[in-house]
Please model this.
Amino acid sequence: MDKINVNVFIDRENKNTTLNLDNNSIVSDLLKKLSINPVTVIVARNNELILEDDKLKDNDKIKILSVISGG
Amino acid sequence: MNCCNEKPIIELYSGEKLCKSHFIEYFENKVLKTIRQFDLIDKKENLGVALSGGKDSLTVLYILNKLSKQNPKIKINAIAIDEGIQNYRDKTLEKAKDFCHKNNLELHIFSYKEEFGLKLDGMLKILNVKPCTICGIFRRYLLNKKSKDLKLTKLATGHNLDDECQSILMNQLKNNIQASARLGPKVGLVHDEKFVQRIKPLYLCTEKEVTTYAFVNGLLDEFNECPNVPQSFRAQVRDVLNDLENKFPGTKYSIVNSFLQTLPLLKQQFKDEVIKVCIKCSESSANDVCNACIYLEKLRKSIEVI
Model:
């Protein structure tokens, strides 16, 4: 398989999106594609936090949670 | 480098990767070390925690509540200010109420509407000022006044390393060094009974660490940003700092650590700053009339004209 589909929820934008990524993509590839600075977010899969070098899998459901203070 | 065989949940700027239990231990130790290093909390305190319902203030309340259970001489009171920002504060206050109810903590809520006659949204329709400026003036005013009424010995806030970094840089960019002299883990230049001293137990914790701690302890709710924040100078400085941190990890620590080395000199330089009493409300003020009273007068005059 050359490509994987990853479902992404971005909490700051309250937006769901599906991305088609290269197989072997890691979290930092996903953030780069979305132009998100990794300093400003934490990333969760199945309610568990994952790191920038964690590998993504086909049909992953990813949540990108902003660390920015709201007020 | 991983801490153990468990799956890591965070990578620190040093490159060390920590699992959930080691991260919780690391974070709580860091907060305790901050409290000890800067002498933030005495053995006996009637401590207030300024609670917005956001992740930072919930985290500081969660940790201080844990601490107070080990030390019954430390009493915890939560204080929340309802500025009246629709679709924002109403939601975070619900979270604050829910947390305090579940943890059997007393929560005191004071609103702009009750104290000043208008919600922030209403004030902004009348006054031509930046929202964060006026909101900050009235919030600090109420927090100090109500903390004194409640006889609190200190007031803890959820300010973290990122907040402090932003304030340091903002003061530099505005050439307002005297304001920087009032920063630090213990706020204020001189000890004065007109001020309830504010303390920042999360001073050395990055925003990412606080969010991670809030996440693993179930304190993180859906993202909710004040509608006025994107307009602020602080938000622009925050973005610049986050870009720098991404390119040069450890930038924020460097800024705050170098600031801490100069802070005693700054405090010394401005040690003779006199805290006056506002002739209208008797609250502390830098001038004869405090900023809160100046804006309240402007609001009254504008309402009379309308």
